[in-house]
Each structure stands twice: as C-alpha cells, then as structure tokens.
Amino acid sequence: MGLVIDIPAIVANWKALAAKAQGARAAAVVKADAYGLGAARVAPALYEAGARDFFVALAAEGREIRPLLPEDARIFVLSGHMAGEDLAGLVPLLNSPEQFFRDRALRPGGAFGIQLDSGMNRLGFEPGEWAAIRAEALAAGPQLIMSHLACADEPEHPANAQQLAAFRAMTEGCGVPRSLAATGGILLGPDYHFDLVRPGVGLYGGEPFAGAQPVVTLALPVIQTREVKPGEGVGYGYSWTATRPSRIATLAAGYADGLARALARDGKLVLWAGDHAVPVVGRISMDLITADVTGLAFVPDALEILNARQGVDAVAAFSGTIGYEILTSLGRRYARTYR
Ligand SMILES: *Cc1c(COP(=O)(O)O)cnc(C)c1O
C-alpha cells in the first residue's frame, strides 16, 4: 500500500547507464528531491554503489544532502552562484560572467565548474561571453565544464550534432573534465559522453532509457465500495453515469497527491488489481478517485496506478505529459516505503 520505491532498482539503473557510458564517469542527478523519490535515500545508496558526483538544481537541495554524503562526494549546483546563496561544501556551475565574478569575489579558491550554452538558450555562458573570460576562468581551475542537450530524446534531431560541435568548439584544449550528456545523451553514443555523464530520469525508471528497471509502485487504498444503479452519476459534475448496475470503489488519492485531473480527461485511465485493468470513472477530485470495479470478483484493499506494467511514462500519456512530471508530482501524503 502507498508508494514503494525500489532503491536496488535505482542502483541497477545507475550501473546500467554507467556501463553504457563506457570510459566516462557516471554522476547522479538528484535534483527536485531525486525526482520526487527522496534524495536523502537515493544519494547515499548511489554513493554506496560508486557514484561520487551528484547534481542538484538549487544550493538548498545540495545543503540537504551534503551531511549525508562523505567528503569525497562532489555536489554540483546547476543554478550556479545566485546572490546571497550559501555554497559551503557545494560546487556551483557558474552560468554567466556575472556569476563568475560574484563567485570569485566571494569564494576565492572555492571549487567551481562552468556551464556553457551550446544552443539550448536556457543556462550557461554564451560563446562570446565564454571567449572573453575563458583564460581567466581556466586559470582559476574549474572542476568541470558542462553543457546540456535540448533534443537528446530525439536521436535524429539535427540539434544534437550542432550542440556537440558547439560544445567541442568552446572546450577544445581546455584541459578540464567535460560533461554534455544526461540520460538521452548517454544513449546517443560515445561521441556525447566526454568525461562525465549526468543521468537523471533513467535512474528512476523513465524514458528515454527503455531498458530501465521499474522503480516506483503506487497503490491507492480503497476507502469504500458502493452499488450504483443505471442512470446514477458519480463524482463532480456527474461526468460519468452508470449504464448498468455497477460497483464503484472510492480510493484515497487525488490531484492534491499529484494525480492531475487531466489524467482522467478522456476516460481511459486505468488502475490495476493484479492483472485486471480497472477503469477510473468520473472526475479526479482533490483527495479521491472513483473506479468501476464491477468486473472484479473481489475488491482488493488497494488498486495500483504505477507498477511494472503501467510505468510513469504510460501514466503520463493519459494526460499528455512526460514521466518526469509524474515522478516529480508524487504527493507528500502517500505512505512511503523504501525497498
Ligand atoms: C535535469 C538535468 C539532467 C538530467 O537529465 P535527465 O534527462 O533526467 O537524465 C542533466 N543535466 C542537466 C543540466 C539537467 O538540468
């Protein structure tokens, strides 16, 4: 019952992606609380498995896991050095001339990395800015120079080769470890691997890493069941009406738990009782979901929405989103168990 997170599966996924990256070191991206699964559990387990490099989005996320990891673990902060931020024990990835000069003024000698924009236009030094500062930045001894791919989940997209060429042009001869690939980039092949790869979603069982082991099982408790007559409506707006004598189960989860109303928008969302698919009927409300269990011989204590057969990407498809968003929306109210 509740949310079960399979730590050995995360470790196995990290090892599988690390093996695909061949000679490159494999880091672990644990931003957004390890994609909603609990960075305090995930990061130490991956350290145990051999990971020494971790990436978070915000310094505050880094400060939360810093005490949980031995000193030789590096925690890179993707947002870099924002004004007023405490970066003790963390490695900011400096994104702009402004961040570079702020960091060097406030943390002279402090460990840092550089993030370059190779085309995504989101974070990082533009080529011209980098050219102007490159000699000074390299003299200060960055730990890493990185960039990020915009279209790595589409192997045929021409942006991949363009970004690769831009990254090479900006970093040729710099003598500093380089990193370009996240999960999608690892799967693009060795040209994209450089010295360090940064898998995130693939660790947690999401596409585009098709070979990922499933990580999350989410079983929603059944609170009660009732018999509904033909013509009776169920839930807000009576958006579903019984056409036959039906048995309806009410489950303890809703959009406040990250199960968006849009998941039920076209009436195709199903839950699972073992091998049996159970259709969700009516609207998803804040705390409750209703499902038509008429076809079940008996109603179990809980129905699964995420399991090995219906993973985060399959659920995402019901509402037109991506597995990343399903993971990072998983609610705080679920009883969590770590395996
Ligand atoms: C989120 C992120 C990653 C991890 O990406 P996945 O697609 O989840 O593997 C790597 N690098 C950067 C800069 C990111 O923002």
Task: Describe, in plain words, how this protein is organized in 3D.
- The longest helix is centred in the N-terminal third of the chain and has 14 residues, at 7-20.
- Helix content is 28%, strand content 21%.
- The model has no long low-confidence stretch (mean pLDDT 97).
- The protein is built from ten helices and 19 strands.
- Helix 1 (7-20) crosses helix 3.
- Bound molecules: pyridoxal-5'-phosphate.
- Pyridoxal-5'-phosphate (PLP) binds next to helix 8.
Helices and strands, with pairings:
Elements: E1 2-5, H1 7-20, E2 25-26, E3 28-29, H2 31-35, H3 39-49, E4 53-56, H4 59-65, E5 74-77, E6 91-94, H5 97-106, E7 113-115, H6 127-139, E8 145-146, H7 158-171, E9 178-179, H8 183-188, E10 196-197, E11 216-228, E12 233-234, E13 240-241, E14 246-251, E15 270-273, E16 276-279, E17 289-292, E18 302-306, H9 312-319, H10 323-329, E19 336-338
Parallel strand pairs: 1-19, 2-10, 3-4, 4-5, 5-6, 6-7, 7-8, 8-9
Antiparallel strand pairs: 1-11, 11-14, 11-18, 12-13, 14-17, 15-16
Helix pairs in contact: 1-3, 9-10
The protein binds pyridoxal-5'-phosphate (PLP).
Describe what is shown at a glance.
This protein is α/β, with parallel strands linked by helices and 339 residues long.
Strand order in space, largest sheet: 3-4-5-6-7-8-9
Shape: elongated
What pattern of helices and strands is seen along the backbone? EHEEHHEHEEHEHEHEHEEEEEEEEEHHE
Low-confidence stretches: none
Distance between the termini: 13 Å
Note the beta-strand portion: 15-25%
Helix content: 25-40%
The count of helical stretches stands at 10
Helix vs. strand class: alpha/beta
User: What gyration radius follows from the Cα positions, in whole Å?
Assistant: 23 Å
Bound ligand species: pyridoxal-5'-phosphate
Q: Main beta sheet, described?
A: 7 strands, parallel
Average pLDDT, rounded to a whole number, is: 97
Number of E-type strands: 19
